[in-house]
């Protein structure tokens, strides 16, 4: 059962917490992580790209020149792909890129991602993440004190508009709640900053 230190928002150590082996002490499964990240990125695609084929480009109804006798290659339309302003051959058309993973695979991927953060020493537990007013400076100072100044994922136990708004203008910082954490955001962040209450709720739901 991994133990990690608990800090306050000023970066001072205020205790420690024993994390669940079920969630934070798993062996990292690289293949499942790859599948989860790939599925996430594919599901972000709109799939609305579309090019015009030769039948969809306007014009080109008249044969450019007669079939024989000109010395030039035979042509049937100025909208064929080899012509400027012609249609696109084998171009992309609207399609659905969506793919899905089963529930068990999603869980294994999430646990692997969280375990990887613990193993790398990139998981930071804060006793409470809060601010009384909308204050970007407060959040910047907290992240600086915790050594999470670059890309950080801040996980809250519940929706806190003041914290979310305060982090919104900080480059590289993403906020989420314990029940909406996804594998891509965990792996994409340099530091995983989570409130102590969010850890307890994660363990209550998954462990």
Describe, in plain words, how this protein is organized in 3D.
Helix 4 crosses helix 5. The chain has a 6-stranded mixed beta sheet with strand order 2-1-3-6-4-5. The longest helix has 18 residues. The chain is built from 7 helices and 6 strands. The mean pLDDT is 94. The protein is α/β, with parallel strands linked by helices. It is 34% helix and 14% strand.
Core attributes:
alpha/beta, 7 helices, 6 strands, six-stranded mixed sheet, elongated
- Number of helical regions: 7
Structural class: alpha/beta
Helix content: 25-40%
* Major sheet description: 6 strands, mixed
Rg: 27 Å
Short description:
This protein has 207 residues and is of the alpha/beta class. It is built from seven helices and six strands; from the N terminus they run ββαααβαβαβαβα. It has a six-stranded mixed sheet.
Topology:
Layout: E1 3-7, E2 13-18, H1 21-24, H2 30-43, H3 103-120, E3 123-126, H4 136-146, E4 152-156, H5 161-167, E5 173-177, H6 183-188, E6 191-195, H7 196-206
Parallel strand pairs: 1-3, 3-6, 4-5, 4-6
Antiparallel strand pairs: 1-2
Helix pairs in contact: 2-3, 4-5
